[in-house]
UniProtKB/TrEMBL annotation, chain A:
This is Peptide/nickel transport system ATP-binding protein/oligopeptide transport system ATP-binding protein. Keywords: ATP-binding, Cell membrane, Membrane, Nucleotide-binding, Transport. GO terms for cellular component: plasma membrane. The lineage of its organism: Bacteria, Pseudomonadati, Pseudomonadota, Alphaproteobacteria, Rhodobacterales. The keyword Transmembrane helix does not apply.
From TrEMBL, chain B:
It holds the Pfam family oligo_HPY. InterPro entries: AAA+_ATPase, ABC_transp_ATP-bind, ABC_transporter-like_ATP-bd, ABC_transporter-like_CS, Oligopep_ABC_C, P-loop_NTPase. GO terms for cellular component: plasma membrane. The keyword Transport applies. The keyword Chaperone does not apply. GO terms for biological process: peptide transport; transmembrane transport. It comes from the Bacteria. One of its GO terms (molecular function) is ATP hydrolysis activity. This is Oligopeptide transport system ATP-binding protein. PANTHER family: D,D-DIPEPTIDE TRANSPORT ATP-BINDING PROTEIN DDPF-RELATED, TRANSPORT ATP-BINDING PROTEIN. It is a peripheral membrane protein. Keywords: ATP-binding, Nucleotide-binding, Transport.
Length: 334, 352
């Protein structure tokens, strides 16, 4: 991966807190990452690890209150998205940054035709007239592989199947030629054979349109097949970040290693027993003062209970937030 | 073959579950959803039969129908040598203790107003004459068995995590010492790191209590881990049934092949090696299945005959059942076209 290119999106020390009746929940803690043009960054983590909240914080999509984006910097096109006005942000959302949500069943409006919903961003962001927008909408549906696109523009969402609806969602997100596409678990609600279709489509579109993609998922298999780089999140933090082959071939963080062992494979050796990660993810009631994984970790030691590990660079564009050095099999120097 | 010597605990023959569709001003019956349309299989004692397929293929309906949670349209179900296919619901009650179910969504299948103890105790109240103290002791034992702390017996389901709730559901299913448990997507609602915990628990309990599972799932890699044999369903029918190793190493039916190749492989070095089969289009509606083979609209190796004649479900190799014309000899096909009924009936009597 060439490191020289300027990132299209640069996120630094993002911190998001939810105010709830039971106290604060620190959902995102000091998350930093950079997205380079044309690359596909996979974000993996279990539910509650803060992957969706991170992405929604970037675009100010979280209702406030309860959400409070407390700190950080999101540089996009020379501006800090956390500081710009609502109008400017609205121009970015759906325009230069497209968003595909998890559930294609609920994120389309059932009372408008698919054509109307596709033309809306085109008219709002690109200033097209009705005729131009209709033409472009048809092209977009063709781009995402919906047959008989012209006629389908007049159909309502319920007339499409799940896979087709997700294609429509992708088409809407692509409408204004975004520089960045954020896809939040876009295939989780779909069947495997349909998921395979969407994954192929995404790879094809990325090559064709050259946009950068952030792909959020909990499925390591999907990541292995599609991502260039991977960021593993746990309890609102980035615990490991590496190029995809490096991550799967040489995982450094104990959580990543355990996660990779947990999932049974469809090919290869069949384990007699699955390796499990004992315990539950922590409840993030306060800003972490220790490693959040220490209670479930098999290499945890003293220091893990007192300090939250920073991200250590381990070479090959790979970093990990762990005091234990998996390469030497010993704790890092304090 | 090993299986021939073993006794089937559950035998399902030609099971059909059709749901009527009513429409129009007078709510007239205009058709039916053929959710399960002629399914036959055996589950042997102590084994785990995996039932896989995409959403809407009828796998959950099949699991529920086998336990007679529905009044089935047609077919026969034998559990422990007793035919229950057409038994009226009241007569089924005494049989319920032997056959239990673990549901997909632990959130929805536990009553939020009952404590954990009451939830696990309910089957004991219904089916046994134990004293309160004995019941409490039994509940404690069950909680130990599924790895829940006894101290939590008085808590309500909302106080537990998803994985723990699924353990409560499993404890409830175990309460009456069942022989046969239908697990309907027991891990689908759980996180990856929790899924393995529940699957290991199910395996431990199987060993400990000699349980037989029908494990319904869409997760092919998890089924490969837990199942002894695997049945693949598509649009209300079983298209292939085979021992685990055979099915994953050498899938016979084109649908099984496509399904397996669609599963993302969590190892990039393996992932990019094999050519993927991407199926085109979507699953047809079960209220209006295509003529001939159900899979003919998406099959990569479709032939003319597939669009005309429905393939028979037959044993093509020892222990391997497939419903596909690719595995029929020419003369077989000819006799089918003539519509010989006796061949079908002999097929049915064979152990599936």
């Amino acid at each position: 991966m060439p490191d020289g290119a300027m990132p299209v999106l640069d996120v630094r020390d993002l911190k998001t807190v939810f105010q709830t009746r039971g106290g604060e929940v620190h959902a995102v803690n000091d998350v930093s990452f950079a997205l380079r043009p044309g690359e596909l960054l996979g974000v993996v983590g279990e539910s509650g690890s803060g992957k969706s909240v991170t992405m929604m914080s970037l675009l100010g999509l979280l209702p406030s209150p309860p959400a409070d984006v407390r700190d950080g910097q999101v540089m996009f096109g020379g501006k800090d998205l956390l500081k710009v006005s609502m109008d400017e942000l609205r121009a970015v959302r759906g325009g230069e940054i497209g968003f595909v949500f998890q559930d294609p069943m609920t994120s389309l409006n059932p009372v408008y035709t698919v054509g109307f919903q596709l033309m809306e961003p085109l008219r709002k962001h690109m200033g097209m007239n009705k005729r131009q927008a209709a033409k472009r909408a048809q092209e977009l549906l063709e781009l995402v592989g919906i047959p008989d696109a012209r006629r389908r523009l007049d159909d309502y969402p319920h007339q499409f199947s799940g896979g087709m609806r997700q294609r429509v969602m992708i088409a809407i997100a692509l409408a204004c030629d975004p520089k960045v596409l954020i896809a939040d678990e876009p295939t989780t609600a779909l069947d495997v054979t349909i998921q395979a279709q969407i994954l192929e489509l995404m790879k094809e579109l990325r090559d064709k349109l050259g946009m950068a993609v952030i792909w959020i998922t909990h499925d390591l298999g999907v990541i292995a097949g599609i991502a260039d780089r991977v960021m593993v999140m746990y309890a609102g933090q980035v615990v490991e970040h590496a190029p995809v082959k490096e991550l799967f071939g040489n995982p450094q963080h104990p959580y990543t290693r355990a996660l990779l062992k947990t999932i049974p494979s469809i090919a290869g050796e069949r384990a007699a027993r699955l390796t499990i990660i004992e315990g539950q993810p922590p409840i993030m009631g306060a800003a972490p003062s220790a490693c959040p994984f220490r209670d479930r970790c098999d290499v945890a030691f003293e220091r893990c209970a007192h300090e939250n590990p920073p991200r250590y660079d381990v070479g090959h564009g790979h970093d990990t937030a762990c005091f234990f050095d998996a390469r030497t099999g010993a704790p890092r120097d304090a | 073959m090993l299986d021939a010597a073993r006794k089937p605990l559950v035998s399902v023959r030609d099971l059909k579950m059709h749901f009527p569709i009513y429409a129009g001003l007078f709510r007239r019956r205009v058709g039916e959803v053929k959710a399960v349309d002629g399914v036959s299989f055996d589950v042997f004692e102590g084994e785990t039969l995996g039932l896989v397929g995409e959403s809407g293929c009828g796998k959950s309906t099949c699991g529920r129908a086998v336990l007679r949670l529905y009044d089935i349209t047609d077919g026969s179900i034998t559990i422990e040598g007793r035919e229950i296919g057409q038994t009226p619901q009241p007569d089924l009650r005494p049989m319920r203790p032997t056959m239990q179910m673990v549901f997909q969504d632990p959130q929805a299948s536990l009553n939020p107003r009952m404590t954990v103890e009451d939830i696990i105790k309910e089957p004991l109240d219904e089916h046994t004459t134990l004293t309160d103290a004995e019941k409490r002791e039994k509940v404690g034992e069950l909680m130990d068995a599924v790895g829940l702390n006894r101290k939590f017996a008085k808590r309500y389901p909302h106080a537990f995590s998803g994985g723990q709730r699924q353990r409560i559901g499993i404890a409830r299913a175990l309460a009456l010492n069942p022989k046969f448990i239908v697990c309907d997507e027991p891990i689908a609602a759980l996180d990856v790191s929790i899924q393995a915990q529940v699957v290991n628990l199910l395996e431990d309990l199987q060993e400990q209590f000699g349980l037989t599972y029908l494990f319904i799932s869409h997760d092919l890699s998890m089924v490969r881990h837990i199942a002894t044999r695997v049945a693949v369903m598509y649009l209300g029918k079983v298209v292939e049934l085979a021992p685990r190793e055979g099915l994953y190493a050498d899938p016979l039916h084109p649908y099984t092949n496509a399904l397996l190749s669609a599963v993302p492989e969590p190892d990039p070095s393996l992932a990019r090696k094999s050519e993927r089969i991407i199926l085109q289009g979507d699953v047809p509606s079960p209220s209006n299945p295509p003529k001939g083979c159900n899979f003919c609209t998406r099959c990569p190796s479709v032939m003319d005959i597939c669009k005309e004649v429905e393939p028979d479900y037959r044993e093509v190799k020892p222990g391997r059942f497939v419903a596909c014309h690719l595995f029929n000899e020419i003369n077989d096909t000819a006799s089918q076209m003539a519509g010989t009924e006796d061949k079908k009936s002999t097929n049915k009597e064979k152990t599936l």
